[in-house]
Design a protein that fits this description.
Length: about 170
């Protein structure tokens, strides 16, 4: 099973509410889709350390005080394929810059392009961006790669205490 992270940096967008920092992914799993910065854990790293590192590497932002917002499990043909630790934070320093992996963009939370994201994201990301915590299981069918499989079922539990996922 692959262990991964996602980080959703937030800022006050004034009258229009909050903005979230999204990336357009330039390569790998989910290429061409929007997501948060994130990726696979390296050995010896905690999920939170991974989320901080991936955000720095992909978009050049320094994030601190990460809050654990979700614990997602993606199953492919009945087998656990990927686990994803989801964080949000308002402690963000620097200006986002593009990398080989990611094209970053501050997007109003009300305008998140769910039609250009993984099929399951509209089920859990709005709640995460509003401050809720979620544990979710998402079933895909049709073989590798995961981003070409069909999303067939899900199960979500909200407001679950998650600790801080160090
Ligand atoms: N929003 C969202 N993200 C997902 C879903 N499924 C899934 O694996 N992800 C995330 C977990 C990871 O952060 C990211 C894929 O991992 P990655 O960035 O390491 O993949 P990659 O193939 O580019 O690997 P690498 O070369 O960067 O190591 O996508 C999903 O259904 N929704």
């Amino acid at each position: 099973m692959i262990e991964t992270t996602l980080c959703f940096p937030l800022r006050d967008g004034g009258d229009d509410g909050d903005d979230v920092l999204l990336i357009e992914k330039r390569r790998g799993l989910g290429e061409g889709w929007y997501n948060g910065p994130g990726g696979k854990l390296e050995s010896g790293e905690t999920p939170q350390e991974c989320a901080v590192r991936e955000t720095r590497e992909e978009v050049g932002l320094e994030v601190r005080d990460l809050e654990k917002a979700g614990e997602l499990t993606f199953l492919l043909d009945g087998e656990e394929h990927t686990r994803c630790h989801v964080y949000r934070t308002r402690s963000v320093t620097g200006e986002p810059s593009a990398s080989a992996e990611a094209d970053p963009e501050w997007v109003p939370v009300d305008d998140v392009p769910y039609d250009r994201m993984w099929d399951d994201d509209h089920l859990w990301l709005p709640g995460v961006l509003e401050g809720a915590t979620v544990v979710g299981e998402f079933r895909f069918e049709g073989g590798e790669p995961l981003d070409e499989a069909e999303f067939v079922a899900h199960d979500l539990e909200w407001d679950v205490p998650l600790g801080n996922g160090s």
